[in-house]
Amino acid sequence: MAYDADCIFCKIIRNEIPNTLVYEDDVVKAFLDITQGTPGHTLVVPKTHVPDIFAYDAELAAAVFSRIPKIARAIKASDPAISGMNIVNNNGQIAYQSVFHSHFHLIPRYSAADGFGMTFADNSAAYTPEKLQAIAAKISAQF
């Protein structure tokens, strides 16, 4: 597995930095986020150092993503008060990524007032069907 000697998550994977383990296998390590956005907030990180989603190959993506539902179900089963979960993956500084080792936040949701929130601006008035089709065509042309 590829590591980055200066990466905080690589150091956590190697247990050079204390962490609170939730799950570990040969592909991922899941541990509690020290910020605990809500109780049970867990980070899932691939053991191979990849900076963001753009660096995954299909094999690593399949291996990492296939483990997320199992970990999410375990978190939900751990507390009957959990009624939902946000799964968040930020890629790039502009997208609020602060540690440049790919990771997924599994954030249990207890209520609308549990201290975690996500909002998106409604820009729908600025996008005609033609503008949406032009955007989709630019993306589709990349496959």
UniProtKB/TrEMBL annotation:
EC number(s) stated in the UniProt entry for this protein: 2.1.1.-
Residue ranges occupied by any HIT domain in the UniProt entry: 8-116
Motif annotated as Histidine triad motif, chain positions: 101-105
One Pfam family it belongs to: HIT
Keyword Transmembrane belongs to the record: no
Biological processes, Gene Ontology terms: methylation
CDD domains associated with the record: HINT_subgroup
InterPro entries: HINT (IPR039384), Histidine_triad_CS (IPR019808), Histidine_triad_HIT (IPR001310), HIT-like (IPR011146), HIT-like_sf (IPR036265)
Alphabetically ordered keywords of this record: Methyltransferase, Transferase
A Gene Ontology molecular function term of the record: methyltransferase activity
Domain of life of the organism encoding this protein: Bacteria
Protein name: HIT family protein
Organism: Loigolactobacillus binensis
